[in-house]
Here is the input.
Amino acid sequence: MKLTYRQIDGFVKKPDPAARAILIYGPDEGMMRERSSIIGKSVVADLNDPFNVAVMTGDALSADPARLNDEANAMSMMGGARLIRVEAAGDSLTPILKDYLKNPSPGNLVIIEGHDLASKSSLRRLFETAPNAAAIPCYTASAGDVQTLIRQELQASGHAIDPDAIAWLGQHLTGDRALARNEIEKLLIYMGAPQPGTRIRLEDVQACCGQDGEHSLDDLIYATAGNQPEVAIRTFKQLVDEGTALVVIQRSLQTHFRRLHFTRSLMENGKSQMEAMNSLNPKIFFKWEDSFRNQVGRWPINILESTLNRLASLEADCKKTGVPDEVMTAQAILSLSARK
Here is the structure.
């Protein structure tokens, strides 16, 4: 079955029992892991339970196709239903899963975790059309999605937040739901217990969530747009080594160049540079104001337009199976940062 956008959250919280196998796929790996975990816990209390949970990779299943039926039809030694998770799945598993869905386990659940499967993917089509299966897409969280998540988490904790603070967070945490949750948790620890009349301000989120990985992202984007290729490549490697998703890096670069383009557009329509920069929401963090001002002056609007097209194409190309996405992203960063 194919779920609409509005059906997804309800299905994740309470999976349709008719779906005996569920495919979770998409570019946002943080969201994919989160949804897989929530659905998995509807079957077993502990996802690390060695008796009730079986985990295998797509390659392992391809090498031993009978293992899926063996695990899915095995009885739990401790009673109750079992969970079978298949990680890093691709279209090569379509024949195996198509055969399994002819006679799936009525009690045990199979969760398939895929990557960014295209609309023509045979695995995705199988799960979208089978009446006893379901496909759940996990697209990269937009700024609006992240802002909704922030509001929900802060409301549950009893905190209030200023509009410019939530706008800043939404823009800076776009790209990976897991990253967003980690930064929200960090913010809650930083703020402590909510106090009557106290609100989270822009200065609070910049002081808290502007540390570690966020400063590294800022270092990367300002080095890339500021003609500092050595700093840009070094920071890129650090971010990748720390596990930052490439799509987060790509989206951060797009956001920065989009803000440069917006500023130049206002200037070409008669606003001063200061007026144009003051129109940005959120405002430029004070640490980067001089750098941003200099970059506005050195990037013509036509070059910014071609750069945005290039970054959008880079993200699309990196979603294709088998491409050297890390190398392609590094090449783009090197090329942009070396522009005189």
User: Anything to note?
Assistant: The first strand starts at residue 21 and ends at 25. The mean pLDDT is 89.
